[in-house]
Specification:
4-stranded mixed β-sheet; 4 strands; about 35% strand; globular; alpha/beta
Length: about 100
C-alpha cells in the first residue's frame, strides 16, 4: 500500500492507495508511530482503497482508542465494499466515517 502524507499544523491527512491488508497495516502502524506526535486530527482518505482485511480493521480500532477525542479521527472517501465491511463488523458505529 502506498501512503501519501500531508501535515497541516496539528492535522495529518493520509491518503491510502492499494490493499489495506496485513502488510499494509504494519506499514501504516510504523508510519503513525513517528507521525502522530502533536497531531490532534487524523484524516484517513480511502479513495484508492479497494479492499480492507481484518488487520486493517484492527489498526483502525487501535487508532480510534489512541485518538479518543470526538472528531480526532475521520475516514473519508470510502467505497461501497469497504463501507459494507465496516457495517457488517459494526465498526461504522465506532468510527467517524464521512
Amino acid at each position: 500500500m502506498e501512503i501519501i502524507e500531508k501535515k497541516d499544523n496539528n492535522q495529518l491527512t493520509l491518503t491510502l492507495k492499494g490493499r489495506f491488508d496485513a502488510l499494509a497495516a504494519v506499514e501504516l502502524e510504523k508510519n503513525l508511530k513517528t507521525n502522530l506526535k502533536g497531531i490532534e486530527k487524523l484524516i484517513l482518505d480511502f479513495t484508492d482503497v479497494k479492499v480492507i482485511a481484518s488487520a486493517g480493521l484492527r489498526v483502525l480500532v487501535q487508532l480510534k482508542k489512541q485518538l479518543s477525542a470526538p472528531g480526532a479521527m475521520k475516514l473519508v472517501n470510502i467505497n461501497d465494499s469497504v463501507r459494507e465491511i465496516l457495517t457488517v463488523t459494526k465498526l461504522i458505529k465506532l468510527l467517524d466515517v464521512e
